[in-house]
Amino acid sequence: MVLIYSNDRKLALEMLAKGRELADEQGKQLTVAVISNKDTATDEYIRHGADKVFVAHMDMDSFKVEEYTDILAGIMEKTGAETVLIGSNRDGKELAPRLASLLDTGCVTDITDVYIKDGDLTAERVIYSGNAVAVERFIKKPHIMTVPGKLFDPLPPDDSRVGEVITENIDFEPYPSKIINIQRMVSEGINVEDAVSIVSCGRGFKNREDMTLAEELADLLPGNTMGCSRPISADLKWMTEDHWIGLSGHKVKPKLYFAIGISGQIQHIAGMRDSDIIVAINKDPEALIFKSADYGIVGDLYQVLPKLVDAIKTKMS
Amino acid sequence: MNIIVCAKEVVDVSEIKTDPKTNKPILQGIDKKISDIDKNAVEEGVRIKEKLGGKVTVLSVGPSEAREYIKELLAMGADEAKIIPYADTGDYNVVSTILAGAINNLGYDIILCGEASIDLFSGQTGPRLAQKLGIPQITYAKKLEPKEDTITADRDLGDKKVTMESSYPVLISVTKEINEPRLPSLMQILGAANKPIEVIAHSSLVSEETSVLERIDIKGVSMERKNIIYKDDIDDAIGKLVENLAKDGVLG
Ligand SMILES: Cc1cc2nc3c(=O)[nH]c(=O)nc-3n(C[C@H](O)[C@H](O)[C@H](O)COP(=O)(O)OP(=O)(O)OC[C@H]3O[C@@H](n4cnc5c(N)ncnc54)[C@H](O)[C@@H]3O)c2cc1C
Ligand SMILES: Nc1ncnc2c1ncn2[C@@H]1O[C@H](COP(=O)(O)O)[C@@H](O)[C@H]1O
Fold first, then answer.
1. Which of A91, A136, A292 sits opposite B223 (nearest CB)?
2. What is the DSSP code string of B37-88?
3. pLDDT reported for residue A60
């Protein structure tokens, strides 16, 4: 049995597509685990490929990893899950290894691919901060993996599919930690993964307001979105995490990627190396970013950007 | 406060190149260091000690040569270190079982880990260890407020910010943003030479290690780029760049 779990419904639908493939290949069933008393999308999961939806009915509405580990282990036992795909948001990434540890089994995080090879489930993932890909074979069941967003496309909904919805209470052991506050972050609804052009800002910008220089450039480009390096988002909070590109952020593959005032550390490159054309603007001629660029201008971004904006406007008019 | 920091020796990933013939990463001859975020974990451990008193112990599963880098962590203010030599196979179940074995032999209130290591980068070790010890975990902490009986942590989780509180013992993994690791002074570096580093055999901690995963291949990644870099006149450079981008058909 293949089991899918994520508290992010979109991610669950994406994972269902791969889950369906893995289940069919092995002649197994596909189940979605829902841990909530509110998720009413059970039919949607079935339309998108699930055979069953297992709802663990809870009075708890905030994610606590220790308790979710117990609950998911309970669902696995009841459903006989052998392969578990967990959505790789931050909640999923701390849940999967804890669950794997409880079950003394293997876990591959942020897979880039999964397939059956010589009869064994095998997963690939990026290691050495983006310098290599490891191919890992599970030698024990159950297999646990976390799956990042946008890796798989959801199956088209099929209204004729029928499935079973099972609702049960699952016991868990309460833990002494408690959630004091949850603040939802306003999402700007942007999707760097889908952008055709990305203009990315790094620490080379001295002030938050200066990034309007980069915005003016972005506005000229097709299907554009702003991106940034980790410190701009995680440290300075000048942009939301939706914009953060790299190993620990989003992986993107636009047609055109501008890296402006970004030094080009491997952790940033890991997120944008699949772009078609990479342009770097940096005042340091030795900056690593130039090694990963198709075109580079060595210069002060404060001088280069306004001129570049003018030149592109002229070219396109 | 008994504070344990898990720290790991890694290859400096920024130096890795791919062998064009075999398409494998070249790992020989690459400098080693302590994984970046583990230094943030040590810094946070030392700050907690400075506030509440206690002792900071560094634990590392890896080659005994790690001693050279572990000394830096002692210079930063950790009190002692324990190295458990073990050839890294990338099997998290094994590493976390060994760490749990070592930690069970020590007293502990807080265990600190990095959010993720720079070589394997999975963030598995912390949660696995917490489960093995049967204690709560707080991951991705970017701010900690330790008190006598409880600790509060702020966590940035992308679509939400969560503040959590836990009693002790607790395992916490920290982000790169939590602090700026201190650079030890020469006096502190010299002083660290006298701090104890114990080497413990893993066989004395765990009876058998169950492997759960086998790494069957490592593939390098290579990237071909045009590398046309304009260094001189900016106006000239911009003109050429715009021409090229238009030719590449990416300006829309
Ligand atoms: C485990 C781990 C995960 C990480 N994950 C990510 C990730 O997902 N994404 C990410 O981006 N980083 C990540 N990092 C951080 C990464 O290692 C770098 O620290 C970060 O990418 C640097 O950001 P930056 O290039 O904006 O800043 P800096 O490295 O400070 O570079 C600023 C650049 O701007 C240039 N500059 C300054 N002024 C000007 C000017 N006036 N005009 C033009 N150029 C100028 C400088 O020459 C310099 O090259 C991670 C690190 C670790 C350890
Ligand atoms: N071999 C090890 N020895 C000690 N600590 C480790 C080891 N491997 C991982 N850790 C800790 O676990 C964190 C996350 O590493 P990882 O799970 O590899 O991403 C690191 O930042 C360390 O704090």
1. A292
2. HHHHHHHHHHHHHHHH--EEEEEEES-GGGHHHHHHHHHTT--EEEEE----
3. 65
